[in-house]
Design brief:
It contains twelve helices and 13 strands. The chain has about 350 residues and is an alpha/beta fold. The protein has a single domain, classed as TIM Barrel (Alpha-Beta Barrel). The strands form three sheets. An eight-stranded parallel β-barrel has the order 1-2-3-4-7-8-9-11, surrounded by six helices. Strands 5-6 form a two-stranded antiparallel sheet. It has a two-stranded antiparallel sheet with strand order 12-13. Helix 2 runs parallel beside helix 3, helix 3 packs across helix 5 and helix 11 packs across helix 12. It comes from Lentzea flava. InterPro entries: Bact_Lucif_Oxidored, Luciferase-like_dom, Luciferase-like_sf. This is Luciferase.
């Protein structure tokens, strides 16, 4: 079992400036490398305090690559529909070189109607645009004189420079929230997977991961699929202190998310079945229930170790658990303390791909 860190800035300028957020987050990337975390990743979002400090993951990850030498850097994820595939292939290939082959390239469909509207892209085209862009980027990375005549983009013949550092290309991850079809398609294509357990039930996520693994196996791909699963994490030697932080910053997360998804109250798309109920689901959020269901990690190092052992039983012990330690405007000292506790007390309870007996 492996562990990484992720950044999702649920913060507004009144609470923390962008400069402070970036400086603090890059410091956490350096600390993550020191503590032995496997990767650092960030999202792509726009405009609102729900992720809006991260409009370009590549820019942040380039700075992270310059400060580190071992830790992998991951887009988690770039929104495929919002960038021309030639531009996206070039940006990511350049980052792969700047990091000396440490890039994991995660692609997502996006799900916020206001973002699609701002880019002038119909949200009902998201699935088709995603599939076309990911395949076009893959071909640009691996082929010469590429001619592309797609539904949304036409170009060529072109040969991309630079070609990626990693051969034949950086590992491709697909971010999936609730769609079993997307998970199965990712496995069939030989792509890796990024999932978020907070937005779906345990049973649904177990089924999606099972379908993904089966599709990978049935397609006969070499090697093993990589699955990143994302959580927020609050740790302290004092359980009450950790739970107080968890409730405070998870509530902030929900409040910021509520504003960002408000347009789903009046938006309908067959590409996103059931998303119109997001507003009601967010409004009904309960921290205690989320903690009980292991959708958020919080407590002492022993508490969190037990949670992760349970997660491994549910979803498999070959996961890479990606943790957010600085949600909202959390003081940086608190984030660094939580990372130290996790790296020094929780990670040693897990070795390789097997959960140690002492973790159970």
């Amino acid at each position: 079992m492996k562990f990484g860190i992720n950044f999702f800035p649920v913060v507004d300028p009144d609470a923390k400036t962008a400069t402070d957020y970036y400086d603090e987050s890059l410091g956490l990337v350096e600390l993550a490398e020191e503590l032995g975390f496997e990767h650092a990743q960030t999202v792509e979002h726009y405009f609102s305090p729900y992720g809006g400090y991260s409009p370009d993951p590549v820019t942040f990850l380039t700075a992270a690559a310059a400060r580190t030498s071992r830790i992998r850097i991951a887009t988690g994820a770039v929104i495929a529909a919002f960038t021309h595939p030639v531009k996206l292939a070039g940006k990511l290939a350049m980052l792969d070189h700047l990091s000396h082959g440490r890039l994991d390239a995660g692609f997502g469909r996006g799900f916020l109607p206001d973002e699609f509207a701002a880019f002038g892209i119909p949200i009902h085209e998201s699935r088709a645009r995603f599939a076309e862009t990911v395949e076009a980027v893959r071909r640009l990375w691996t082929e010469e004189n590429v001619v592309w005549d797609g539904e949304f983009h036409q170009f060529g013949p072109v040969t991309m420079l630079p070609r990626p550092y990693q051969a034949p290309h950086p590992p491709i991850f697909v971010a999936s929230a609730t769609s079993p079809e997307s998970c199965a398609a990712s496995g069939s294509a030989g792509h890796h997977l990024q999932v978020v357990p907070s937005v779906t039930s345990r049973e649904t996520l177990q089924d999606n991961i099972s379908r993904y693994r089966a599709a990978w196996r049935d397609a006969g791909h070499a090697g093993s699929p990589r699955i990143q699963i994302k959580y927020t994490a609050y740790l302290s030697e004092n359980r009450a202190e950790a739970l107080e932080a968890g409730e405070t910053y998870e509530r902030n997360y929900i409040e910021k998310m509520a504003g960002a998804i408000a347009s789903w109250a009046s938006t309908r798309s067959d590409q996103y079945p059931g998303y119109e109920s997001f507003v009601d689901k967010v409004g009904a959020y309960d921290f205690a229930a989320s903690l009980r269901d292991n959708k958020v990690l919080a407590g002492t190092p022993d508490d969190v170790t037990e949670q992760i052992a349970t997660i491994a039983e549910w979803f498999g012990d070959d996961l890479c658990v990606s943790l957010q330690f600085n949600p909202g405007a959390m003081p940086i000292a608190q984030s660094r303390k939580a990372m130290h506790l996790f790296g020094e007390h929780v990670m040693p309870a897990f070795s390789g791909s097997r959960v140690l007996e002492g973790a159970r």
